[in-house]
Amino acid sequence: MMRLTLLLSILFSLSLFSQQISPLNEKRYEDSLKIVVKSHLDNSKKADAYYLLSNYSRNTDSSWSKKCLESGRVLSKNNAFLMAEFYYYNGLYFLEKDKEKASGYFQMAIKELGRFKTEKSDIIQALSWFNYGLIKKNKEGYPFFIKIMLEKSIPLVEKYETSRTLGFLYTQLALTFTYNAEFQKAEYYNNKAIENLQKNSPNSAELFYAYLSSSSNFCYQAKGDKAKNFLDKAEKMIQLYPESSANAAYLYGKTLYLITKQKNEEALPVIEQGLVYAIKFNQNLLAQMFYLNKCDIFRKLKRYTEAKNVLENILKEKTLVIDANNRKTIYRQLSNLNEEMGNSSDALSWERKYSKLNDSLNSENIKLEINTLEKKFNTAEKERKIATLHAEKKQKELEVNKKNSYLWGLGLSLLLIISLFVLFMIIYRKNNKISEQKEINLQQKIKDIRQKEELTLTKAILESEERERERIARDLHDGLGGMLAGVKINLSSWSSSYFKEENTEFSKILEQLDRSVGELRYVARNLMPESLLNFGLETALNDLCEFYTRTDMEVDFQPLNIESTLSLPIQVNIYRIVQELLANAVKHSGGNHILLQCSQSEDHFMITVEDDGEGFAEDIYKTTNSMGLRNLRNRVGYLKGKLEINSDHEGTTINIELDTNAI
């Protein structure tokens, strides 16, 4: 339950930051903006003030927010830059009301602001890209959002090192890495944000939220003491402003810390205090997060009925469960709660809802994969038929040309057999050379066709293999894993009815079943590494090296210029090649150190694997029937690559060069 709460807390943080952050002294901030709009300053300053007032009040007073937005637009009519700003703030206004409309306004802002080369223009463009990526995250996934942050948003403001927006964006990237369990990367970007903001904006709200981000990152790793250090810094900043809405975020961070330190009784009054702020400032999502933490504490205190009631109220309120993945997770938690309460029928009912929703979420992806595979197959089949007809046509044309040349030569020979004998011989030899050249051309075309067919076949085999790996992984995790979970629930219910006292042997059997479920899901993850799908090739290769590293075997990974734009099929094939090389080195070399170097130069991808083992006989790899080496050659050939193996008593070196434009 703690893991669920923390995951959803990161979702809350991302939602909270999808706007410009107001200063901690909100009352003074609001008053100063109202003074500006009532002053006799020029229209540009008043328009900016109206836009900021609109954003500040959009969650607490929607009608006032809309009125301020319209006032700013009227003042911006004759100013192209201010109209571009209007598109951005209009996107913020619709962010929680109509995400598609908000997305369109952010794109309009990016287009219009691109005409201006100023710091303010770059900053608002960066924030527009950030909010656009945040909207598309649920559909495109976190890799898409991270790509937007690293390639679009952050580069626009990195040249303005003193800007608070740079620290703000570093914090958002850190939160994203925390949510995806990339804690070291999250810590790196949190530190960059804090270093920047402490130096340039030491009293800013951006620094306050950067402290909370670092605290939550360490809470997620159960490192409570480190989390407390940053939480105390945030507390020192917010305690001067007891009326600020930011107190709700601080109290939520404090709740996470107390739960991490297992101080559940102390956390309950903090939650109640946080709910007061969240309700006062219409922070519905944050209020539901407090309730979720409350449920977690009730469960730990064995107050199961109260915990179940809180979860059911969260479902009724619907703020959290609009997202199907959150709803699926809460179904699973309700199943576990009812199991612990001994309500086996309710536990099974919630488990069925979980499985049904999980299957529906997967079915669309399965249909898409099937349609894509079918489309690729039909395209390959048509190309093969066209190539066959083309070859037959060329063959017939060649036969006709040969026949015509022969008849022409024979006619000349009969008419001029004596007087033109020499000329005939010259013509005959010339025609013979032409025929030989055509034959050579034909053979080359046939060879090209065969190579193309072999490439198509290899591609189909490798793609089918990867699809099958993914299907088996999914079936193991969601199918057999769900069935075993149901078996465990039934066994727990049966034991409570037939054993009056705790049965040690039966408890051991349940523990073995739990370990079996864990091992099954571990196997499923290995069949299709999630890090490759979510974070790209370099991260997946780094994880693979860490997997093979042990006390008597060091695996050193050295990446260089690996581009994140490589297509997924290329990344999967490179990953499988490296996986086979490392597996062979670990299993057969007998060495203590393996060096893996991967580098990319334009369309060429180089792989080098060296070990300090005992080596093997020269050219043995050319004659062996090992399935692993056969698969390795197939994948290298599929990417039009070159494979070179050098081995002696001091170790083995394997060099591979691949063409990333092969497919």
From TrEMBL:
Histidine kinase domain segment(s): 471-662
Annotated protein name in UniProt: histidine kinase
Transmembrane segments: 406-428
GO molecular function: kinase activity
Catalytic activity line of the entry: ATP + protein L-histidine = ADP + protein N-phospho-L-histidine
Domain of life: Bacteria
Keyword Transit peptide: no
Pfam families: HATPase_c, HisKA_3
CDD domains, A to Z: HATPase_UhpB-NarQ-NarX-like
Source species of the chain: Chryseobacterium luquanense
Signal sequence residues: 1-18
EC number assigned by the record: 2.7.13.3
